[in-house]
Design a protein that fits this description.
The protein is built from eight helices and twelve strands. It is of the alpha/beta class. The chain has one domain: Metallo-dependent phosphatases (Purple Acid Phosphatase, chain A, domain 2, 4-Layer Sandwich), CATH 3.60.21.10. The structure holds fe (ii) ion (FE2) (2 copies).
């Protein structure tokens, strides 16, 4: 019988409400879906929703995450710059220019199999001057394939077309390509023709009645009056959403058997947040 493993991936976790929601659900979902490892995008897990910190990394680890991926907010918390050099469990997009701290991939052991987790970043509608994600992962795969054919890719990108293009570019070469960054889940999960699991965007973890995790009032001020009155505020109110996918992978071929979308609406977490969490 062919052996498979299942990887649970949770999208961008925003601020304290996102973290507490992740903490509540991660291991429950792992058990419910029979997943063997948890991967999470933590790029918004700092209290203000911008960047990650050693503290939030430890929180993810404590709640079962094997690897924490990131994206464009990765450099916003200075504490992370030294942490990412020392830790193997947090990665940044591989196509940041050479010389940036940290790595774009991590290897973990899952049920006795080596699994590579890779993070790449799109360039369409993105301000940072990044290297080509397509060429970047192409050359990285030459190295990774010497270690394993079980490869899970978090493609952090804005444009849906760029993400779908990456899916087809990597179809049959990696186990999964999952999109992050927009915080809005898409309903196009599928196994592509050559066997790679794909979704354009997994979605995020944070307040349901918000604009991608931030209080709608502040965001509307910007759209209605072109005024940005300080930083946006992480929304800690009301129901929380948690979005993820579970991908089943054939350990012999490294190709996907199935991808399943997960969406939880939680009405209890906001009541658990302390005053400190909210400020
Ligand atoms: Fe992002
Ligand atoms: Fe994000």
């Amino acid at each position: 019988m062919v052996k498979t493993i299942k990887l649970l991936f949770i999208g961008d976790v925003v601020g304290q409400p996102g973290l507490i929601t992740f903490g509540k659900w991660a291991s429950k979902l792992k058990e419910q879906y029979g997943a063997d490892a948890i991967i999470v995008n933590g790029e918004n897990s700092a209290k203000n929703g911008r960047g990650l910190s050693p503290k939030t990394l430890d929180f993810f680890k404590h709640h079962g995450a094997a690897v924490i991926t990131s994206g464009n907010h990765v450099w916003e918390n200075r504490e992370l710059h030294s942490a990412i050099k020392q830790r193997e469990d947090v990665i940044r997009p591989v196509n940041y220019p050479a010389g940036c701290p940290g790595k774009g991939y991590a290897f973990i052991e899952v049920c006795g199999y080596t699994v590579a987790i890779v993070n790449i970043h799109g360039r369409v509608f993105v301000r940072d001057l990044l290297d080509c994600p397509f060429r970047g992962i192409e050359s990285l795969l030459t190295f990774i394939k010497t270690k394993t054919n079980i490869i899970f890719v978090d493609f952090h990108a804005e444009a849906t077309a760029e993400k779908r293009a990456m899916g087809f570019f990597l179809d049959g070469k990696v186990s999964a390509v999952v999109g992050t960054h927009t915080h809005v889940p898409t309903a196009d999960e599928q196994v592509l023709p050559e066997g790679t699991a794909y979704i354009t965007d997994v979605g995020y973890v944070g307040a349901l009645n918000s604009v991608i995790g931030m209080q709608a009032e502040g965001v509307l001020q910007k759209f209605l009056y072109a005024q940005h009155l300080g930083k946006f505020t992480v929304d800690c109110r009301g129901a929380m959403e948690l979005n993820g996918v579970c991908v089943e992978i054939n350990t012999e071929t490294g190709l996907a058997v199935a991808i399943e979308r997960i969406r939880i609406i939680d009405h209890e977490v906001s009541g658990l947040l302390t005053q400190e969490d909210r400020t």
